[in-house]
Known about the structure:
Blueprint: E1 2-6, H1 10-21, E2 25-30, E3 41-43, E4 50-52, E5 59-61, H2 64-71, E6 76-78, E7 83-87, E8 90-94, H3 98-105, H4 111-121, H5 132-139, H6 142-157, H7 167-170, E9 187-191, H8 195-203, E10 208-212, E11 226-229, H9 233-236, E12 246-257, E13 265-268, E14 277-280, E15 292-302, E16 311-312, H10 316-331, E17 335-337, H11 339-342, H12 349-369
Amino acid sequence: MSILMVGAGLSGAVIGRKLAEAGHRVTIIDRRSHIGGNCHTERDPETGVLVHVYGPHIFHTDDAGVWDYVNGFETFLPYINRVKTTSQGQVFSLPINLHTINQFYGRTLRPDEAREFIESQADTSISDPQTFEEQALRFVGPDLYKAFFKGYTEKQWGCSPRELPASILKRLPVRFDYNDNYFFHRFQGMPENGYTQMIARILDHSGIDVHLDVRFDPLRAPDYDHVFYSGPLDGYFDYALGRLGYRTLDFERFNYQGDYQGCAVMNFGDREVPFTRITEHKHFAPWEQHDGSVCYREFSRAAGENDIPYYPIRLVEEKEMLAAYVRRADQAEGVTFVGRLGTYRYLDMDVTIREALDTADTYLNHCAAGTAMPSFAFFPL
């Protein structure tokens, strides 16, 4: 078959590679001048630091198959994400752990004591938290909520935590030991030479042609046996029903001679600080040594028409519009919508890769059976 893959990020590369290995002819296009999508990494010419151009991407998974897959194209070296936060004039460890609790309250609590103490701070009148704020108040109480979640969340999402679902906070752990590893997955690491090199190796196959600085024209779709589209779902239909809501990020990049903050990620929980965090990129590759440093201040805001979409909002209004676009997508023939943008879901990298591998398998099975590939291998709703 002749396959068109729209997007040279993780979804496009992984699906394209598997289909090319199965003997299909794959053309991959991307509107940007580089491969890798938002995972794109490049060396800063001044400092030599490997920079995560669109913000940091830290690989963590419990999926052994995905871990083996990425290590087949690039060596992943150990990396533990230890996040700090500046709040109320002090630096604390995140996620909230026993050290955070003892430091914040000036105590020396043991794990069982800390668990009982936090429960005493919590609002136990909230039996079924529906909003982010209710979940936080029931989870950790008003003091920790204000210090670590309220201001940061208002900056990140541009709305009150009372308007956000409780599910957003449920992803964040509270630990009653001194474990400050932000993630809990078995496999955690960073690609030794960056994600762009890894994706370049995935794309390095005789059955794959890559064309950059090329915009997708839906009128070209009939030229191919099938299209896999990893761009914005609403963009495929020229935003005929309106634009789905996203948050975007602005980066204020600066170089520093020396070590700016001593860690890779420093959050800023206070509402009056306009940025959400500062990332120092040389700390994402602790096996390297650099005298200079590259840092990003991150500012979150609503995505405009010409902005890069980062985080799907998926509140009530967006879900209604999404359902309408899904109905329209189901009527489209010869195209499958994939990835974070194509399905309007927040996906970690490991989930993106797993879904891409499974999507390719689904397509190959339909080819073998002579049946039509559906518009979604993974349903957005």
